[in-house]
Amino acid sequence: MRIALTIALTLLAIEASAAPRLELMGVVWSKPILKVLVRREAPLNYVAAAARAFKLWRAAINYFTRLYGYEYLRKLRFEVYVEGFNASPDGYDVVVSFLDVPSASMELGETTLTVVGNRVVKAEVKLFLRDYTGAELKPIDILNVALHEVGHVLCLGHASRAHTANGPELMYYKYTPVNIVVMPSTLDVYGVALVFQRLLGGRAVRPLQRAIELPARIPYRLTAYYYVHVVSTVNGVEGGGWYLENETALVRAEKAIVRGDIRYVFEGWSGDVEMEAPQLSLRVTRNYTLIARWIKQYRVIIENLYPGPSSSEMWVNEGDEVVIALRDTRVEHGNGTLRVFRGWTGSVEASSPELRLKVWQPLRLKALWDKYYRVKIAFTSADGLTLSPQPTLLMLDGRLMNESELWLKPGEHVLEWALWRGIKVRALANPAVKGPGTLKIPLAIWRPLVRVTDILGLPVPFVEVKLVGPIKAEVTVGLDAYGRTPELPEGIYEATIALGKLILGHTTLVIRGDEVLTLHVLINPYVLVLVLMLAVLVALALRRESS
Hints:
eleven-stranded mixed β-sheet, single chain, rod-shaped, 547 residues, mainly beta, Immunoglobulin-like, seven-stranded mixed β-sheet
């Protein structure tokens, strides 16, 4: 008796259970090699997808037997012929046809098995090219529907679960379009192993019609899929995941990823593949683990550099030592301006012009420079006359300097004294530096007027005053009894007043300004001469009278 057993992709699901279960139809083919004809009733890409479904089932069986045994399944094969393409013998076991109309009952595929007794003698598969709305299906959807219908051809019913550990369950009653090839699950192939075990053992025995579960040792997942596990500490890789056996996995890493002052530079792949190129193409024949290796770098910024660029930037590998050295610590700009390195500030505080640093974080260093101006100090007396000779030894800002042309910072400086004619002379002003140039600084060197009088206040002209103190000097007073001294450092002087070889007097002077210094003598030589002359005249007159 012939029985037509039809099962469609929209059958109701079997009762769900805690473990994934698969329904078996309870029938079996009487031979292990099935001849398949795929009719040319659809575009070539659809026809090719339907033919490929049988090859993928064969790949799923090979995958399953390699991992879990059941070697007898390798005897189960399909001989696929495409109408009008390859010579095919008469007598097909499976015929695949296409319908370019929407299905009235929403199914996408339909398989009819012709059964004699408990043996299948023929299978007819119909694949719809459009869904129930009339929208055309994609070739990958035709392939997935054809894979499902081949499961029915192999006497499988529907599965209780919609998803496996790594993808959709092929034999679930309802199909949802996806962008991957939905391969048979380990549960599906295990079901085929139970259906065909006695046939391939030598005799056809009707299997019990029942729902089966996977043994505990077999994980529930899609067959012929391998996982490419991409490990990266940086979110800068693409690719990885589940790939169909013999598919090509394209995995790519960014050459460099910058996140603020941190950069990750791709170094290469390790794990199951050793490669330096950031992009690799991998034919997937097993599970792979790919580890992206990155070099972590930190940005090092150096600012305020002279001469040349004002700043410098570099990337340094984490843990490496970087040497930062200034070529010049004194940079003269040629316009009377000088910069002298003072130290570093920022991530590191240091005074040495050369630093050796282990880089464990981003660094930002700023070179500190002191500005100096070329300043010539011209010394004058208190009244502004240029001194000759000019002092060269001076005490400035607490330091002894042996030149008058100096590099000085902007601002006011403290000038304590200058050595003039062997004498330390107090400065009357401090240098206030605003730029390069010449600064006139008066010293406590005076040119006071000297006036010589007698005790009656009468002027004593034409006398010489010899001064002995910090320096020696001579002054000759004129007719008015006044005389101006040469430049004299302030201090205490001993004054000797003489007319020729006649010493008229001694006195002590304190010179500390340009005031008039009055010197008194006890005897006015000119009055004395006048008195003597009068005495002589009187004596002569008396002598005349007596004679």
